[in-house]
Design a protein that fits this description.
A hairpin with a 3-residue loop joins strand 2 (41-54) and strand 3. This protein has a five-stranded mixed beta barrel. By secondary structure, the chain is mostly beta strands. It is built from two helices and six strands. It has a single domain (28-138), classed as OB fold (Dihydrolipoamide Acetyltransferase, E2P). The chain has helices at residues 2-18, 100-104, and strands at residues 34-35, 41-54, 58-74, 86-95, 110-119, 129-138.
């Protein structure tokens, strides 16, 4: 263990002398980014529906969330191919586990979506990232401003 720590300290010193920083490729978690496997997240934005088609598969309606602020998601360590890093995500597909009618009825409204992030790919994906819903609620709309008199 002492030899390993000495080697790491030596490598850090060598990199510092060269003016370089160690690579974070071994640790894909980026500061400020969400992660796939660390529980549920809550995101807010405008829900809408979109007709998605795929070659030889017809079409389907997708429930899409357009985020107020783009997010990023870190790759899942050791499973980067299945759970890739996502940057500047401003749209994601909402994936209801049940009660599709209630979820789709919120299209056109501002919503708060709570669930687990999942990568999406292939024909028929509405976005590269999905949110498997645990809950979806309409957000209270602020009262309209009264005209100045």
């Amino acid at each position: 263990m002492k030899t390993r720590m000495t080697a790491l300290a030596g490598a850090a010193l060598l990199l510092a002398a060269c003016g370089k920083t160690p690579s974070t490729a071994h640790n894909p978690a980026a500061p400020g980014c969400l992660q796939y496997a660390l529980g549920a997240v809550t995101l807010s934005g405008l829900a809408s529906t979109e007709r998605i088609s795929a070659p030889d598969k017809g079409y389907r309606e997708a429930l899409v969330l357009t985020l107020d602020t783009p997010i990023c998601v870190s790759a899942k360590a050791g499973q980067e191919a299945e759970f890739p890093a996502q940057h500047d995500v401003s749209r994601l597909e909402l994936l209801p586990k049940s009660d599709f009618t209630a979820a789709f009825s919120l299209a056109g409204q501002r919503v708060s979506a709570h669930g687990n992030l999942a990568p999406l790919s292939g024909d028929g994906a509405a976005a590269p990232l999905g949110l498997v819903l645990r809950s979806l609620k309409a957000e209270a709309t602020p009262p309209a401003a009264e005209p100045a008199q």
